[in-house]
Write a structure and sequence with these properties.
By secondary structure, this protein is of the alpha+beta class. It has 13 helices and 9 strands. Helix 1 packs antiparallel against helix 13, helix 3 packs across helix 5 and helix 11 packs across helix 12. The longest helix has 59 residues. It is elongated.
């Protein structure tokens, strides 16, 4: 006979131990009271911290200086922008310097406190800008501001020290180059003097008729040079008296010949005179004053625009006043116009003398080249002169680099500019009561949730009963032909909860 067993399990809950819930309640109250007491005591006893900040920028600018040395060559000095290197940001270096120990020690010493009391400043760089922000904490608003000022002063002083050290190292190398160039120049000059003394040949003037022709041309050049010097002196005198150049004089005549510009100038003068007269009687915001001022500005803009159109460059009121031909003498003619005419005449004379001098120089050079090919001694002399010229060029270039290096006072440490002064904080940066209360609230929720979870785990099922039933197989028949009855068995298991 085959029977099938079908188990059935039933659960019953065991009653929690007495006093267990009261223990969780007391524990939760004590933990929450302790947490909130700590938070309130911190808010009551913590000293406020004030933050003073300032902003610094590194201008994104570069410059290039080119100096031409007559008959020698040229030299160039280039000051690169601090942002021309794609893989480096100069602000990161400045950030390190601003938080370095020498800067903090110097700032603390300026305030008469220790480095620990001064604290560590916070420096941030703003992406895609040239700005840096420096922040310093203090116990009072005034102390925070004083710390920020002292930090900026110490930061600038440290940058100046680094610039001086860099310039000293750079100048020492240029000085060595300058000394070498000076020795070479002295050697070349000594060789040239020795050759002249031994050969008796000082110039091509000592060679036959060709040399005589050269002397005559040089005599004419000397006379022309004197005339040229006189013309230059006259031009400088007239230009110095008027504080104007020949080009500016030409511009003045251009403006004087332009009727529209003269009309705009007259309108501006009348508007200015009317405004000055009315300003002595009426207030600055009087409608008439406002109208006259608007009229004056319109006339000035028209005058400046016309002047820019006529001259082909930007002009302002100062330059236009300098180019004015309005000064009139007793005879009724413009005295400035006559002087301006003298400037232009002197310039024309100077240009004519310069052209004649250039032609004489060309002829002299041509004859000297012919003479050089005829005499070996002259070629040697020219070679020595060339050596001297090259040595002078090297010496002048080294000296110019030294002078240009002295003018570049920033070097690898670009100039900084203070955008915002150190602020005087109006409220403390910490502690923030809202953050403390928020943290205490989160802590209370976590404590309460944890205790409730532990209490609920103590109420899990602890007693269950398994009841099974045996069913006879459909094919099982007793010997008397009857089917056996269904029987049931029960198994009870007790499990104690921990």
């Amino acid at each position: 006979m085959t029977q099938t067993f079908h188990p059935t399990t039933t659960y019953s809950e065991a009653a929690p131990p007495r006093g267990r819930w009261l223990w969780f309640l007391i524990t939760g109250v004590i933990a929450n009271v302790a947490l909130w007491s700590i938070a309130l005591i911190y808010l009551k006893t913590a000293e406020p911290a004030y933050v003073s900040g300032l902003s610094v920028t590194l201008p994104n600018a570069g410059s290039e200086t080119r100096i031409d040395l007559p008959q020698i060559g040229n030299t160039t000095s280039q000051e690169r922008t601090p942002y021309d290197r794609p893989n480096s940001d100069p602000r990161e270096g400045y950030k390190y310097i601003a938080t370095s120990k020498p800067v903090i020690d110097a700032a603390a010493a300026e305030l008469g406190i220790s480095s620990g009391e001064f604290g560590r400043p916070r420096v941030e760089t703003i992406d895609n800008t040239t700005l840096m922000e420096l922040q310093v904490e203090g116990e009072t608003p005034e102390q925070a501001q004083q710390k920020a000022i002292a930090l900026y002063d110490a930061f600038q002083e440290r940058l100046n020290q680094l610039r001086i050290e860099e310039r000293t190292r750079r100048d020492s190398g240029v000085q060595r180059t300058l000394q070498d160039a000076q020795r070479k120049l002295e050697t070349a000059q000594a060789r040239l003097s020795q050759f002249k003394a031994s050969s008796g040949l000082t110039s091509g003037n000592q060679v036959d008729q060709l040399a005589t022709n050269i002397e005559q041309l040089r005599s004419q050049r000397a006379v022309l040079f004197a005339d040229q010097q006189q013309a230059n002196a006259q031009l400088r005198q007239i230009s110095g008296s008027l504080n104007i150049s020949s080009n500016q004089a030409a511009d003045a005549f251009k403006l004087g010949a332009d009727q529209l510009f003269q009309q705009n100038l007259s309108d501006y003068s009348q508007a200015s005179a009317s405004l000055n007269a009315l300003s002595q009687q009426l207030g600055a915001n009087h409608p008439i004053i406002v109208r006259e001022r608007t009229r004056q500005e319109a006339a000035r803009d028209a005058m400046l625009n016309r002047g820019r159109t006529v001259l082909g460059r930007a002009v302002d009121e100062t330059s236009l006043a300098q180019l004015s031909l309005a000064s009139v003498n007793q005879s009724g003619s413009s005295s400035r116009e006559g002087l301006f005419s003298q400037v232009i005449t002197a310039q024309v004379d100077q240009q004519g003398l310069t052209a004649r001098a250039a032609e004489l120089d060309r002829q002299i050079s041509l004859l000297e080249g012919r003479l050089a090919r005829q005499t070996q001694s002259l070629s040697t002399l020219e070679a020595l002169n060339r050596d001297v010229t090259i040595s002078e060029a090297l010496f002048s270039s080294a000296l110019t680099r030294l002078d240009l290096g002295a003018s570049d006072s920033f070097g690898s440490y670009p100039q900084t500019q203070l955008l915002t002064e150190p602020s005087l904080p109006s409220e403390p940066a910490g502690p923030k009561p809202i953050f403390v209360i928020f943290g205490a609230t989160i802590g209370s929720l976590l404590i309460t949730t944890g205790l409730i979870t532990l209490w609920l785990r103590g109420r899990r099922p602890s007693h269950y009963t398994t009841i099974g039933s045996f069913e006879p197989d459909a094919q099982t028949v007793l010997w008397n032909g009857s089917v056996p009855e269904k029987t049931t068995a029960a198994t009870e298991v007790n499990v104690e909860s921990k």
